[in-house]
Amino acid sequence: MIKKLSARQNEKSLKALMPAVGETVSVQFQVPRKRFTLKLLGFKENGSVILSAPKGSVNTLNLEGARLTATLMAGNRRCAFVSRLLKANPSPYPHWHLAYPETVEYHRVRTHPRIPVNLAVSIDHQDEVQAAKLGMPRILHTQDISLSGISVDASSALGQVGDKYFLTLRFQVNAMDQVILLPAVLRTIENVEPGVMLHGLEFESLEEETQLLITAFVYQQYLSELGYLEDE
């Protein structure tokens, strides 16, 4: 049974949704109860869906024929479909063939989803004089992140709305460390509780590589929040 995606679900064919090769796919078997995080290698309409096989010495031959639910992203749509494992092939490289689904249920993810995340961030004012006055750079912590910005809390205001900053952020994408520099502008300041000021910063003028890393990290955290990137 497919995990409920939303109150209102939509259906399309996998070909119409066109998920990208290399997309992360969460595969959940009910009997036996197993979960795997794999990669989409391709698909053939009315044929099969090809996924990478689990790494290591995991014996999956006993799963052939078993029903499963697969979940993955296609653009800004989160998709799920019911299938079964047709064949677990060890050569010429380890891969799986899933039965091609008749339909895929999907729902749109907000363009800029806010994902709760606690990361250390170094923040520095782009104006050196203001940076010196405010005692920057400072190491603070994030509350959430989206494709377009980030929320940071501090004990006092970091400046004025409209001020510009450089944020240095370190995180992992697919278990690989990434350190990026993010130009940002302060959009909001909110006193959420005594001694805690929440600052909403919007990214601006991001380089393409940086934007791709932010996108990968946000969707990785999104899937993790939903439980699709848990270890088996």
UniProtKB/TrEMBL annotation:
A single MF term (Gene Ontology): cyclic-di-GMP binding
Domain Type III secretion system flagellar brake protein YcgR PilZN as annotated: residue spans: 21-101
Domain PilZ: 110-220
Source species, domain of life: Bacteria
UniProt entry tagged with the keyword Nucleotide-binding: yes
Keyword Zinc: no
A Pfam family matched in the record: PilZNR
InterPro entries in the record: PilZ_domain, Split_barrel_FMN-bd, T3SS_YcgR_PilZN
Keywords: Bacterial flagellum, c-di-GMP, Nucleotide-binding
Protein name: Protein YcgR
Taxonomic classification: Bacteria, Pseudomonadati, Pseudomonadota, Gammaproteobacteria, Oceanospirillales
